[in-house]
Amino acid sequence: MILDIVEVAKKAGIEEKHLELYGRDKAKILSSIFEKADGRHDGKLILVTAITPTKAGEGKTTTSIALAEGFGEMHQNAILCLREPALGPVFGIKGGATGAGKASIYPAEDINLHFTGDMHALTSSINLISAMIDNELFHGTLDLDIDPERVVWKRAMDMNDRALREIDVANGPKNGIPRKDGFIITVASELMAIMCLARDENDFYERLRSIVVAYTRAGKEVTVADLKCSHAVMRLMKKALRPNLAQTLYGDPVFIHGGPFANIAHGCNSLIATKLALKLSPLVITEAGFAADLGAEKFLDIACREGGFKPDLVVVVATIRALKLHGGVKFEDLDKPNVEAMMKGIPNLLVHLENIRKFGMDSIVAINHFVTDAPEETASLEDFLREKNIRFAFVDAYERGAKGGVGLAHKVIEALGANRSAYRPLYDLERPLKEKIETIAKEIYRADGVEYSELAEKQLADYEARGYGNFYVCMAKTPNSLSDDPKLLGVPEHHIVHIREVELAKGARFVIPLAGNILRMPGLPKVPAAIKMEDEPW
C-alpha cells in the first residue's frame, strides 16, 4: 500500500514542516526535526548482517525490509535505515539494491538511479577537490608547494570502470602539470565515509577540512582546508547531508542515506539518519554491507563508537542455497536437493555467529526462503539449529510480503525482551595499528597471521609517528571469503592476510589496509546488468 510521503512521515513522527518534498513519494528530512528529537530516549537498534555472500544471493536488504514490513503487520512502530545504492553495482553485477518481490522499497527505480541527488553531490565535491589540486599545481596561487608525485586524493565517479583506475592527467602544453592519477568509485571515497560518520553538518565540515589530499615537497600534509575550498564543498553537500525518506511497499518508513561499500569502506548508512531514527522510533533496523566479517565488524567497531550508541540485537541472514555453495555444490546444481552439502556449508554460518558473540551481541538467524528449498533441506536445517539452541526464523517475504516477515519480527521482539546483549568493541583504540589489524585478522577472519609489504610497514610506522596510531582500522578485503582470497569458500584454515598498502583517511579517523587484490574502482563483469536491461521497458 503506497502512501503519500507526508503520511509516511507521520508514521515516523515527522510533521510536514520538517520535510523538503521531492514529489509525492520521497523527501529530504530537514535538520529542524533534531530540535524536536533532542532529549528523547533511544529506541532499540537491530543490525542485519549475513553469512559470506555467494552468487546464490543471501537477500540481506530483502530481509531487512521484510523485518520492517513484519513489524508493520504487527502494528509495531519501526524505522528502517538503509544505504543508498551506487550506480556501479546497479549496472554491474548486483543490479538494484531496493529489495525484491513484495519485500521492496518504493520508488525503487528512483532510489536505484538519481534519487535526490546525493551521489551526484558527492561525486561533484570529490572532483572539485581534485580540480583545485591540479589548479594549484598549475597556478601556485596558494603557494602550497604540492609535490605532483605525492597527490593522494583520487577523482571519483559513481560507476564501475576499470579503464579509469590509472590515468595520466594534464597531458599537453597548456593543461597543467602532467602526473599520474586515477578514479575510484564514489562510494569508496573518504568524503562518503565522513558523510556517514559525521554527527551533524558542523562535524562534517570539520572532518572535511582535515582530509589529507597531498603532501608538499618537504613532506608536509596538504588538507582540504589548505586548498580553501571547504565552503564550496559545503554548498554542494548541504542538501546531501539531509536524510532521505521513502517507504516499503506497505507504507512503512525507510530512511535511506549514504552508501559506503563494506569491502572498501565502512559499509553503513549515515549516523545522522540512524541517530535520528533512534530518537523517533522504539525499533530501528539498520543493515551493514556484505557479511559479518566486513560490514558488521565495521559497524560494531567504528560506527557504534562514533555514533555513541549500543546495538541491541544482530540478525544474521543465510539461505539454504548459499550454504550449499559453501558446502561445495556447483552453482548450476543448486536447485537439486543436497542435505549433505548444506550441512558442510553450515560452519560458515557458525563462524559469523561466533564472531558476533565476540562483540557481546546476541543474534538470530534469518533463513531467507527460496521456492527451490527442498523440504528435507529445510527440516535438516531446522533440526540442527534447534539442537544447537540457535534462535532462527524463516522469512518468506519475497512471495508473501509483510506476512512473510512476521515470524522474524516475533522472534526479534522475543530476543529483545530477553536482553542478552552487552555490546563491546573488538579492540581498544589506544592499541598500535598493527595490533588492531592483527586482532581483526585473527579473531574475525580466523587467519593464522598477517604479512605486510615493505610499503605497508613503512606507512604504518609513518602514521604512528604522525599521531594517528589511535585511529580505527577499516579493512579493505574481498567480501567473497573470510580470507583475502575470493576463491576460498566455507571456513578457510591456516590462511595469511596479506596487506600490500595502507591508506590514511584522516577526516574519517581510520586507516584503510588494502588486503589481497582488493580494488577501490570495480570493473564491469563480462555481461553487465546494463546489457540485461536491454530487453526491459525503459
How would you describe this structure to a colleague?
The two termini are 24 Å apart. The strands form five sheets. Strands 1, 2, 3, 4, 5, 6, 14, 15, 16, 17, 18 and 19 form a twelve-stranded mixed β-sheet that branches. Strands 20-22-23-21 form a four-stranded mixed β-sheet, sandwiched between helices. Strands 7-12-13 form a three-stranded antiparallel β-sheet. It is 37% helix and 19% strand. Strand 1 and strand 2 form a beta hairpin. With 538 residues, it is of the alpha/beta class. It contains 20 helices and 23 strands. It has three domains: 5-105 and 244-418, 3-Layer(aba) Sandwich (Rossmann fold), CATH 3.40.50; 118-237, Domain 2, N(10)-formyltetrahydrofolate synthetase (2-Layer Sandwich), CATH 3.30.1510; 436-515, Formyltetrahydrofolate synthetase, domain 3, CATH 3.10.410.10.
User: Could you please say which CATH topology of the largest domain applies here?
Assistant: Rossmann fold
Largest sheet: 12 strands, mixed
Using the CA coordinates, give the radius of gyration. 23 Å
Task: Calculate the mean pLDDT score and round it.
Answer: 95
The total tally of domains equals 3
CATH superfamily of the largest domain: P-loop containing nucleotide triphosphate hydrolases
The number of helical segments is 20
Distance between the termini: 24 Å
List low-confidence stretches: none
Query: Helicity level, as a percent range?
Result: 25-40%
The CATH class of the largest domain is Alpha Beta
Portion in strands:
15-25%
